[in-house]
Design brief:
By secondary structure, this protein is α+β, with helices and mostly antiparallel strands. It has helices spanning 5-12, 16-24, 65-75, 105-108, 112-118, 162-165, 167-213, 228-279; strands at 2-4, 28-29, 33-34, 41-51, 54-64, 82-86, 92-95, 122-127, 135-142, 155-161. The radius of gyration is 58 Å and the shape is rod-shaped.
């Protein structure tokens, strides 16, 4: 709305922000007013029109609190947060929760007077009025006078549910937990692999030596790589091969000696028979000789 000249004085001369503009010739942001019809809060902004330093008129703008609430809700409401704008009378005049508009802020935040007395931005954790709903993170900030605008003694409180405010922390904690579990599994798998790689060949070598000691000289170990375990496997295989070859040679020698023994015995038996034959007395039959015995 634009008001100029005498009509402006007639229509607005009793309004406080009009008087303030006339007096100071500076822009004025008035305290929010509640409509007697709709009971909704509106903000009034008035600025002087100066021509060559002379006040020739005034511009007044009215912004319904609901419009501001809808604008702010786009930024904060979709995040699950609740915002409350409080006027100098400690009344909530803008909020994305219509049930909060018009109430005394002390009904919502019992320690508001303490926060207001500090006159500085503060963040704290508060338990909701319904204890079952848990905790919220509350951010309090007083109005700071900006260039060209007066200190209207407003403040704002932003409530954010704990699970939303600390979502990043929870996600980080979850990532750490999952990362720890995955790392633990990887370490366990690596430990099993290293154990199998280091211990299994030793156990196989022990079993192989035991089998060789029991006479199973055909026992062999699988050899992979060039490390000390591979060298150990090669040495055990070489030992088993040497023992197997030695045993085979001894067996052949034993068979050769047995054959030689049998041949020597047969030869000795033959000579003994011949000697017995040679020692036996020989008698030759004489058909012309007659032995007569008288009794």
């Amino acid at each position: 709305q634009i008001a100029v000249g005498a009509e402006a004085a007639k229509n607005f001369r009793e309004i406080d922000y009009y008087k303030e503009v006339i007096k100071t010739r500076r822009p004025v942001l008035n305290q929010p007013r509640k409509s007697v019809v709709s009971f909704k809060y509106s903000l009034f902004f008035a600025a002087p029109i100066l021509v060559n330093g002379n006040l020739t008129g005034m511009v007044r703008t009215r912004v319904p609190g609901k419009n501001l609430a809808e604008l702010l809700a786009v930024e904060f409401g979709q995040r699950g947060s609740e915002f409350l704008f409080i006027n100098k009378n400690d009344e909530v005049f803008i909020s994305n929760s219509e049930n909060e508009i018009g109430i005394k802020i002390q009904e919502e935040v019992a320690i508001f007077d303490q926060l207001e007395a500090k006159k500085q931005s503060t963040a704290l954790a508060l338990q909701t009025k319904d204890a079952g709903e848990g905790w919220v993170v509350a951010g309090y900030a007083p109005w700071k006078a900006s260039r060209g605008l007066p200190d209207v003694e407003w403040s704002v409180i932003l409530f954010t549910p704990e699970n939303i405010a600390f979502a990043a922390v929870y996600n980080l904690r979850l990532a750490i937990v999952v990362g720890t579990i995955v790392t633990g599994l990887l370490v366990a798998a690596l430990a099993i692999y290293i154990t199998n790689r280091a211990v299994k060949p030793v156990l196989q070598a022990t079993e192989a030596v035991k089998a060789i000691g029991e006479g199973k000289l055909d026992t062999r170990l699988p050899v992979q790589g060039n490390d000390e375990l591979a060298v150990l496997g090669e040495n055990i295989n070489e030992l088993a091969a040497q023992l197997d070859a030695l045993l085979a040679e001894q067996k052949k020698e034993a068979e050769r000696l047995e054959i030689a023994r049998q041949e020597a015995r047969a030869e000795a038996d033959q000579k003994a028979r011949e000697q017995q034959e040679a020692a036996r007395p020989r008698t030759r039959a004489n058909p012309d000789a007659v032995l007569q015995i008288d009794l």
